[in-house]
UniProtKB/TrEMBL annotation:
<feature type="domain" description="DNA/pantothenate metabolism flavoprotein C-terminal">
    <location>
        <begin position="178"/>
        <end position="306"/>
    </location>
</feature>
<protein>
    <recommendedName>
        <fullName>DNA/pantothenate metabolism flavoprotein C-terminal domain-containing protein</fullName>
    </recommendedName>
</protein>
<dbReference type="GO" id="GO:0003824">
    <property type="term" value="F:catalytic activity"/>
</dbReference>
<feature type="domain" description="DNA/pantothenate metabolism flavoprotein C-terminal">
    <location>
        <begin position="54"/>
        <end position="120"/>
    </location>
</feature>
<dbReference type="Pfam" id="PF04127">
    <property type="entry name" value="DFP"/>
</dbReference>
<dbReference type="GO" id="GO:0015937">
    <property type="term" value="P:coenzyme A biosynthetic process"/>
</dbReference>
<dbReference type="InterPro" id="IPR035929">
    <property type="entry name" value="CoaB-like_sf"/>
</dbReference>
<comment type="similarity">
    <text>Belongs to the PPC synthetase family.</text>
</comment>
<dbReference type="InterPro" id="IPR007085">
    <property type="entry name" value="DNA/pantothenate-metab_flavo_C"/>
</dbReference>
Amino acid sequence: MATMHDNQLLDNGQGVIDPDTYFLRNNPPSNLAEFEAKTSEFVQYHKERNTPVVLITSGGTIVPLENQTVRFIDNFSAGTRGSVSAEKFLENGYAVIFMHRQFSLQPYSRHYTHSTNCFLDYMTLTEDGKIEVDAKYAAAMATTLAKYQKARSNNMLLLQDFVTLSDYLFKLKSGTRIMATLGRSAMYYLAAAVSDFFIPTEKMAEHKIQSRDGALTLTLDQVPKFLKPLVSVWASNGLIVSFKLETDEKLLVPKARQALEKYGHQIVVGNMLTTRKKTVTFITQDSERIVSLSQEELDNDVEIESKIISELLKYHRAWISHGTLEGQ
């Protein structure tokens, strides 16, 4: 329960509560202890083997409108960037903690769960009642299945999920603090689409909002800026990569630089809504670099994440060696 001191933390002069107050005023998810136990075991396993580990956050957070949630605010993120990136990191020897929105895209299964075909279209039923993979899909599915089984059997992929904004924030805090024991061998790849606004528990309706009451007016509070304690306290030695999505090209680099200056992390990957699958911009304190797919690469179904991860591996090697991005 919040104390009088906690109430004094509510407003930073701009009407935004601070992260400490948020955690005091909201209940942790019921499975947080299980999340922490699995994450700790995974991190310790790879710490003993000197394996670099990346925490990938992926998909969108929901903002409930009622404590007994029926209605909520969501966003369009399906988790494409995060799930593709997880596969690319695994291919390059990284252990991956994939913290994703429940039912969003996941590495490897993404090729079939969210395709234009129903997953049943990939299978056939033989005359004796056995199920087989359709021959025209078999080779590709076998390759994907082999990669997935290798990652899981070698304990290189840990799948952890979240649903609400509160789930995400509590697990982000716990996960990054656990990973901090890896020092500079840890990378934090913050690709989740996190809500900027929420309704505090104490302001939320307890039961389903009734339509008979007429038009609905909502007042949402601004979500605290959690990147600042993540950078300075929870994961101070790791390489931290955030993402910036804009629709106005003139704002992309200036807002990315504002974020770097405000929060003190190392890299922002900027992308425009309409071109996010073929062009990104890497912004650091000292540099700015545009990476794009060629038309030939687009025609051959190359995914931009392969280039994103290739660039980040260079940055991370320099970070591990020198604690700086220079020399990547």
